[in-house]
Recover the amino acids of this structure.
């Protein structure tokens, strides 16, 4: 029976990366890439933008490593906050453009979609459009709470707001999303019942 | 705080999570890792170049400081001879400051040639001896003094007066010198035989 090699903490890996250890830096990336990329993807709705945001967040660790303070929050929270700031820049622009285009058509497609794969894609598109139609401040707390399952205190740390404000934003985001997906939820329930 | 609080809808209605899960997000592409690896190496190279530049600048500044300090040490004025502004003329100045070092052959010293011995200076190689005719030592001393621009005659040294005449001046017969008016050391010198060129030797 062999003992597992001791895993280094994020702080130790950061120190090693600052001394030029490339593998230590990539280990940090592999630990936190999933959450940062998913969050950026859902905030921007674009794989290209999510890729840019993820790269920028981790590259900022190289440019200004002192910006991260261990005593304030863990590295995952810090990276999420950095991803949030980067995503908001793009999300605000996208949201403004969407608002100028007009209301998003969230009704399920009337056309026939016999293939389950196409149906799944259709559902995903509707959910994505509904999320992207939310205001960025509502969208970010909803993503962090529903998808990343973070507690309110951590979300408040990431978005830089008080816990009470996060609660209010989360409540309103859920209300808006539920209203936007109302027809789809009914149709989905009908479709589920029909399949069973 | 209850962690489950975030996953509940909060208003008692159907939770959103099953619906939200229908939007699936792909895994982050490997391209990001490659880009980050490249960025890391670029920054490391840039850091090394910056460090090398700093080392070069520091070395240059150190060399410059050493050079300037040595130059300032060399430029300090010497303690002796405040009139000596030109170091190249320092040697004759010292020689005339001590006229007793000019050795003129005495009447009894018939075996040695007259010579001017420059004063020995510490740290410098010995200069070659200068052989002069009897009586020319004073002229050399005056010449050296003229070169330096000083007119002060050292005590006890009489400067011979040199009369300058033009080329068309009438010839003046050389007066006969009595044996008593000839310097003592002249009486014991003369040409030897009928050699050519004539050589003055002690008789």
């Amino acid at each position: 029976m062999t003992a597992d090699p001791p895993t280094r903490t994020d702080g130790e890996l950061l120190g090693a990366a600052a001394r030029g250890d490339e593998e230590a830096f990539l280990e940090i990336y592999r630990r936190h890439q999933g959450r940062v990329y998913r969050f950026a993807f859902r905030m921007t709705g674009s794989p290209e933008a999510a890729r840019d945001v993820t790269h920028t967040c981790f590259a900022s660790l190289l440019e200004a490593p002192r910006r991260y303070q261990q005593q304030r929050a863990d590295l995952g929270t810090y990276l999420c906050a950095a991803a949030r700031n980067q995503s908001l820049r793009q999300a605000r622009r996208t949201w403004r453009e969407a608002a100028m285009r007009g209301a998003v058509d969230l009704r399920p497609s009337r056309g026939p979609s016999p293939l389950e794969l196409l149906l799944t894609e259709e559902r995903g598109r509707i959910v994505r459009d509904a999320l992207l139609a939310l205001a960025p401040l509502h969208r970010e707390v909803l993503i962090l709470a529903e998808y990343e399952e973070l507690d309110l205190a951590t979300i408040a740390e990431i978005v830089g707001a008080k816990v009470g404000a996060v609660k209010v934003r989360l409540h309103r985001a859920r209300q808006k999303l539920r209203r936007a997906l109302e027809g789809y939820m009914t149709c989905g329930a009908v479709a589920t019942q029909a399949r069973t | 705080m209850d962690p489950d609080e975030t996953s509940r809808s909060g208003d008692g209605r159907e939770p959103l999570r099953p619906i939200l899960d229908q939007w699936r997000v792909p895994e982050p592409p490997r391209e990001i890792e490659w880009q980050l690896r490249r960025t890391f190496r670029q920054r490391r190279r840039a850091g090394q170049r910056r460090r090398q530049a700093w080392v070069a600048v520091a070395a240059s500044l150190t060399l410059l400081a050493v050079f300037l300090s040595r130059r300032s040490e060399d430029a300090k004025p010497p303690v002796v001879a405040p009139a000596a502004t030109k170091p190249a003329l320092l040697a004759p100045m010292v020689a005339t400051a001590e006229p007793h070092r000019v050795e003129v052959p005495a009447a009894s010293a018939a075996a040695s040639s007259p010579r001017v011995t420059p004063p020995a200076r510490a740290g410098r190689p010995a200069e070659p001896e200068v052989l002069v005719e009897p009586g020319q030592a004073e002229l050399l001393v005056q010449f050296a003094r003229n070169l330096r621009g000083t007119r002060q005659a050292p005590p006890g040294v009489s400067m011979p007066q040199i009369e300058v005449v033009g080329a068309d001046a009438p010839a003046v017969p050389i007066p006969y010198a009595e044996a008593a008016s000839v310097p003592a050391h002249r009486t014991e010198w003369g040409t030897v035989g009928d050699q050519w060129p004539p050589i003055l030797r002690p008789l």
Notes: Residues 30-74 of chain B form the longest helix (45 residues). Strands of chain B lie at 102-103, 115-116, 130-131, 189-191, 200-202.
